[in-house]
Design brief:
single chain, alpha+beta, Endonuclease, Chain A, 4 helices
């Protein structure tokens, strides 16, 4: 992804990079166990994924998400169309997930 990101991944990285969301630091393409997280905030253990059409009904995504949850990570998934069509809403949803208050 780093060399040839999709348009949605570029848009999502624009939202997340440089501590733009309330000062939280995100990294991209981070190894977590045997998986690679699209974007990860270590401080809050929040993983943000950009999903394209290949993820429709992907049983492997459910297994991956379960493993990540078991190991203390939360996963937010956004469809590419959602990222491109509503970047402000996506950013707001991520910011809400970063908020430590219940």
């Amino acid at each position: 992804m780093r060399r040839d990101p999709t348009q949605a991944e570029r848009q999502l990285w624009y939202i997340l990079r440089s501590r733009r969301l309330a000062g939280f630091k995100f990294r991209r393409q981070v190894p977590v166990g045997t998986y690679i997280a699209d974007f990860l905030c270590f401080e809050t253990r929040l993983i943000v994924e950009a999903d394209g059409g290949q993820h429709v009904d992907a049983a492997s995504d459910a297994i991956r998400t379960a493993w990540l949850a078991t190991n203390g990570f939360r996963v937010l998934r956004f469809w590419n169309a959602e990222i491109l069509g509503n970047p402000t809403g996506v950013g707001d949803a991520i910011l809400a997930a970063l908020d430590p208050s219940p």
